[in-house]
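Entry:
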Amino acid sequence: MAAGKLRGMDPVAPTAAASAALPTFVQGLALCLGLIVAIGAQNAFVLRQGLRREHIGAVVLFCALADAVLISAGVLGMGQAIGDRPALARAMALAGAVFLAVYAWRAAQRARQPQRLQAAAGGGAPRAAVLAQAAAFTLLNPHVYLDTVLLVGSIGAQQPAALRGWFIAGSAGASVLWFSALGFGARWLAPWFARPRAWQVLDGLIAGTMLVMAGLLLRMALG
């Protein structure tokens, strides 16, 4: 009798998992897009590389793969490990506040010298150097771990085991879509950014956004 019940239930679980796969994929996609589509240090770097047309394919690939690895790590337990250690989360928030404050200051300095920035935009850089910068903006920014690993990872870890792969795929797909659009789509903005004033506005906006984010992280660290 028990065996008959188990046999009767066998087809149900795969069917339920299959029907929930698409909503789980979309949830991961929407969540990650909501977090990633903002002016941050990493996004600003990808946008600037796209405008310069320097190794943008390598930069987009690196950023997307890094996000996929971080999201997977978060879903598979790293996010919970960070969440279970409030002191570590506060330390990361404080480090993130300092990182973003310094980046805001640098962006503000660039905004005050638009002519110099425009001249620099025409230069070239070796691929290794560009990827090293991409790694720094991706991996040395504690805000990435707070959002990508802790928040996205914690939500993904709540999914049934059979659906976690779909959640990771959706979240990673959002990174691929966004970084590709940001990097390769930047060429459409190139005529507008031929004017030094446009770079000045961009860096001013980045500086203000980074400063606000730094303040929010500082509040989190001290709260």
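The two ends are 57 Å apart (CA to CA).
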